[in-house]
Amino acid sequence: MDKDLEAVLHPNVAAKSHSEVGSSRDSPKTPAARSAPSTLQKSLVIGACVATSTVIGALLIPFVSPGFRRIALPYVPATDSQVKLVASILTRRTPGSRVVDLGSGDGRLVMAAAQKGFNSTGVEMNWWLVLWSRWRSYSLGLSKRTQFIRQDLYKCDLKSYDVIILFGVSGMMETIKKKLAVEMKSDSLFVACRFPLPSATPLEQLGAGIDSVWVYRKSDVIGGFRSN
Q1: SS3 for 190-215, per residue?
Q2: How far is 20 from 226, CA to CA, in rounded Å?
Q3: Residue 45 burial (CB < 10 Å; 0-12/13-18/19+)?
């Protein structure tokens, strides 16, 4: 039967039918339906928190992991004063000489040496710092005179370098002294920053406090064993 006709013939039924349709459209959602978006939002928030924590942890591991090694060499950037002192020592060598920074961190000393015309190498275990140093060196136009290697500094062959730089810690200096005595060239210089070589008399000392820098020849390094 035509709806218009039905409305004329049975006005009460038609009105009731329209009322029921409207009420069903306007009726509030069930508790389950209302809670669904809230549950989804909570899941998204939890997922985002877990993902963020994972990324932060992955970024921090290379920085904090040295603290779990037997002899830690943490990342501590060289101060401006230390960079200037090391640069002053480099002037004693001819530009084009080979320089290596053991534990090069963010590469600032390597790049400072490259700016003065030296062929400079940074040896660093922290992969993130190696990548940063490479990018920074490239952005400064120094990539032709620099290279950054991810390597354990104890495994780095020092025989070909004219200047060897190390910002070390006291617990590693005796081992480094033994390595230098074997691998260091007779006319090379070793520059120790913050901590000197034990029982070895330096050629000279520059700076004071945490900015102290000690300069050694190979004969000075070997003399450190004779004095024991």
Answers
A1: EEEECCCCCCCCCCEEECCHHHCEEE
A2: 104
A3: exposed
Q: How far apart are CA 29 and CA 57, in angstroms?
A: 42
pLDDT in tens, 124-134: 999 999 999 99
Q: Which two tokens stand for residue 109?
A: 């000393």
- 3-class SS of residue 55: helix
CA distances from 9 to 4, 16, 20, 21, 22 (A): 9, 14, 19, 20, 21
Who has greater pLDDT, 29 or 117?
117
Classify 84 as helix, strand or coil: helix
Q: Residue 173: what residue type? A: M
At 216, is the secondary structure helix, strand, or coil? strand
Whether the CA torsion 131, 135, 137, 143 is positive or negative: it is positive
Strands 213-217 and 204-206, how do they pair?
antiparallel
- Predicted TM-score (pTM) of the model is 0.70
Q: How far apart are CA 55 and CA 60, in angstroms?
A: 9
Contact between 203 and 215 (Cβ < 8 Å): yes
What pLDDT is recorded for position 78? 85
Backbone angles phi, psi at 193, to 5 degrees: -110, 135
